[in-house]
Amino acid sequence: MESQRSTSSLIRSIFMQKFIPVLFFSMGTVLCGSPVHADESRAPNIVVILADDAGWGDFSCVGNKTISTPAVDSLARDGALLEQFFVQPVCAPTRAEFLTGRYHDRSGVRGVTRGEERMSPEEQTIADVFKQAGYVTGCFGKWHNGTQWPYHPLARGFDTFYGFTEGHWGDYFNPPMQHNTIFQEGEGYITDDITTKAIGFFSDHVKRSAAKPVLCYVAFNTPHSPMCVPDADWSQFAERPLRQRGPDIKKENPVFTRAALAMVENLDENVGRILAAIDTAGVSRETVVVFFSDNGPNSPRWCGGMRGKKGSTDDGGTRSICCIRYPGQIASGVRLSQITGAIDLLPTLAGLTGVELNSPKPLDGIDLTGILKKETEEKSKPQKLGLKLAGRHIIASQRGRISIRTQRFRLDDKGHLYDMLTDIGQKRDISKERPEERERLKIIADDWQKDIL
Predict the structure, then answer these.
(1) Theoretical Cys-Cys bridge with 92: which of 23, 117, 123, 205, CB 3.0 to 4.6 Å?
(2) At what angle do helices 254-280 and 70-78 cross, to 10 degrees?
């Protein structure tokens, strides 16, 4: 394991020579002053927290017995847990889907390097939508949807940016970070630093009673490699027994797994810091909090028995944890068993906050408000929405490989059909037993490919 250390003098020298240092954010690490009282005339705040390369099975609330993630667990307990939530096999495509409510291929995002991560400037983002609705918008952490203008976060509806635009960073201790358009040295471990800046932004705007509501997008870059974690977190895992192992023990590296889980526990601590800041500000009931991850685990560690990991179009590579908390509007302990996905988050957040969507392009996502909220004015809406969700399918695509997930079945990218209700590990191809279902999904995949790719 790597110990905590400063960024190399070479990196520091390069950035200090090329970029003019500016003052750091004038943001407090903790909230000061009196809590803000609820302002019913102001729309609710939104905080979206994204993990990077954390698999569905990396959290204690879904059954991981090696790790403890009390903050994420609290979101699942106090709000809704979307039990069948699907993303894409790698990070930039998932981020594009969250930002636009549309399948990533529609926005031109088809990979993670060589410009394939760039999101078309013609796409309307969640930041555009909420900024037009009067929100102040901030993005913190890993962007990975384009570096130069007009792909930069500041060109995509965000008022403030602190983080990095690339797919990953080579050092997680005091790395070069970008505050808007200026580079500066980060402060300590990157996940802690991102959290501090995000809290400062949130608290600075929320505590102004007459200020605009806040959209704060916190995109962590862990447990993505390199496997760097503070010594205090690693010491908790260095000798900890792994109570659950991946499907093929010979392929699993226990040290890598421990490092990844240590990074997830650190991430969870920072989720807890964000939740504490929201609570201290007195705006918990006026803030929607979303937590999810961008793809499956970045190693063959335990993932609930599912097949695949990051890069795979199977359930193990595309199923993610997702929690949505909105006290007073979403009841505690809600469990959504219907298939949902990253494409649903933009329309759902618009629905929960009452923000009108005037998208110039049709969305692929569905507004889940009707089945998330504790009470609805129109009782038939949840029933209609439930029927719509029951008949839907969600596409996973990776470099021309296409897989389709329905509520019951998955047609994988090799044309094999699996009953996901009885075979979560995708071990038994039932194509010959259900030829009509295989053909139906194959036609959908072919039509989708012709329409988008």
Answers:
(1) 117
(2) 60
Asked, for residue 236, whether it belongs to a domain, the answer is yes
Cα–Cα distance between 362 and 103 in angstroms, integer? 11
CA pair distance 370, 377, nearest whole angstrom: 9
Residue 36 lies in a domain: no
Each residue of 163-187: pLDDT tens digit?
A: 999 988 889 999 999 999 899 999 9
Q: Which of 361, 331, 328, 365 is closest to 347 using CA atoms?
A: 365
Q: What pLDDT band is residue 451 in, cutting at 50, 70 and 90?
A: confident
Q: 76-96: per-residue pLDDT in tens?
A: 999 999 999 999 999 999 999
SS3 350: helix
Between residues 387 and 6, which one has the greater pLDDT?
387
Task: Tell me if 402 is assigned to some domain.
Answer: no
> What total of structural domains would you count in the chain?
1
For residue range 6-59, list pLDDT tens digits in order.
333 333 433 333 333 333 333 333 333 334 444 556 799 999 999 999 999 999
Q: How far is CA 73 from CA 107, 155, 194, 214, 395, in A?
A: 33, 35, 21, 24, 28
**Residues 6+ away with beta carbon under 8 Å from 439:** none
Q: What Å distances lie between residue 267 and 97, 155, 291, 344, CA to CA?
A: 23, 28, 11, 24
- CATH assignment of the domain containing 128: 3.40.720.10
Other C-beta atoms closer than 10 Å to the C-beta of 264 total 30
Tell how strand 136-142 and strand 214-223 pair up. parallel
Task: Give long-range contacts, CB 8 A cutoff, 24+ apart: 441-448.
Answer: 441/393, 441/404, 441/406, 441/409, 441/411, 441/417, 442/411, 442/415, 444/393, 444/404, 445/395, 445/402, 445/404, 445/411, 448/395, 448/402
Residue 331 vs residues 74, 76, 137, 197, 370: alpha-carbon distances, Å? 13, 11, 27, 30, 12
Look at the alpha carbons of 366, 371, 377, 380 in this order and tell me if their dihedral is positive or negative: positive
